[in-house]
Amino acid sequence: MSEKRLKRQHLKKRFLNKNRLVLLNENTFEEILSFKLNLLNVVGGTLTLFFMLIVSTVILMVFTPMKEFIPGYSSTELKENAIELSFKVDSLEQVISKNERYLASLQKVLTGDVAVSKSAIDSLNKVQDLEEQLEQIKPSEKDLKLRELVRLEDKYNVFKEASPKVNSVLFAPLKGSIVKKYDVANKHYALDIASPINTPIKAITKGMVLFSDWTPKDGYSIILLHEEGLISVYKHASSLTKSQGDQVKSGEVIALTGGGIEDSSHFHFELWKDSNPLDPTLFIDFQ
């Protein structure tokens, strides 16, 4: 027991034994500064300094921009920018998808690969069945007179009673004789107009150029988008004066005739609205 007590006393004396730290001038040995220290003061001071260093480092990292230099740490601004970019990329993907579908539809228009909608076929079938039923009924003499009267009224008042699908005034792209008419039964959704080579082709109304380029089948072709979703297609051109994205005015020259691959002797014109073909002669006078 005495030895353990002596060791404790020796250790306590060692920690509490005061020492003097003196700073002397090397040349004159003059005392500049002196401190009275013991081992306990040195250990306590070192631990206090180390603790203050840790606390200051944590405060510096938490409340200053230096925390962004820590590997794996993402700032709030960086996260907000990443979320915003993610939304923009998603929106761009949707726009690209819509443009791809739209271009695919335009390609079908150029190649003539257009399917007649089932609703239109059903409507035609219903009309045909109704006509067959009416033919089986023998009308009376009064009925025949009434039908003739109604036929004459409809002949001269059709545009007063019916509302056209196209509300704009449309101008002829060029004047000439029609060599091939619009024919849904033979899937010819256009007019072929005879015209001399290098005849100016004009826009039927104001709009924007959707497509303007050369195609292997139809030579130089141009497609215009007009108001109310109306689309006009011009094919068999020898040259184009407008590029994709250009704005055109009514009657402005957009191309010259005479460049079709299969047949360059005529000009090919199509009119579309809401993905459905229209007979151009119902809205435009080509004579």
UniProtKB/TrEMBL annotation:
Domain M23ase beta-sheet core: 187-280
Keywords, comma-separated and alphabetical: Membrane, Signal, Transmembrane, Transmembrane helix
Organism: Myroides guanonis
GO molecular function: metalloendopeptidase activity
InterPro entries tied to this protein: Cell_wall_metabolism_enzyme (IPR050570), Dup_hybrid_motif (IPR011055), M23ase_b-sheet_dom (IPR016047)
Record's protein name: Peptidase family M23
Parts of the chain that traverse the membrane: 39-63
Coiled-coil stretches noted in the UniProt entry, renumbered to this chain: none
Keyword Protein biosynthesis: no
Gene3D superfamilies, A to Z: Glucose Permease (Domain IIA)
